[in-house]
Amino acid sequence: LSSSQLSEPATIPPTRHMRLISEQLQIPWGIDIHCRQSKNGVVTVQDFIDELHSFLQIPVSCEELNTPPRDFCTEVKRARERRCAAFVAHGIEPNNFQETELLRRIDFFLDMTIFTGL
Q1: Are 31 and 113 in contact (CB under 8 A)?
Q2: Would you say 33 and 47 are in contact if contact means Cβ atoms under 8 Å apart?
Q3: Between the CA of residue 12 and those of 16, 27, 52, 57, 97, what are the distances in Å?
Q4: Handedness of CA 70, 31, 104, 60 (dihedral sign)
Q5: What would the pLDDT profile of 48-61 be if each residue is shown by its tens digit?
Q6: Predicted confidence (pLDDT) at residue 42 exceeds the cutoff of 60
Q7: Cα–Cα dist 40/42, whole Å
């Protein structure tokens, strides 16, 4: 995306805050997106991308992992293993294996990690 596209409002009409929730995914939280970059006080495409990425990289707490059903937790752990294996397959060796061991919120999306739009 060009810098002009990234600076456009993420929604029509523009908003200062949005909360993303999913009824299809078994994620135990909503994702709050706030205006960060914009001088006019609205959430931009850049704000949306940056905040979504940051949110999905947050390590999962023990409480969050215990929220969904047990069989889903097993799937989340498998998603983490695939994520870590993908780094190695692309020649990216983890500097700290223990860090890559962490479950991250992105892992709750299982194999649904391609963003196709709002």
Answers
A1: no
A2: yes
A3: 12, 26, 19, 27, 43
A4: negative
A5: 999 999 998 888 87
A6: yes
A7: 6
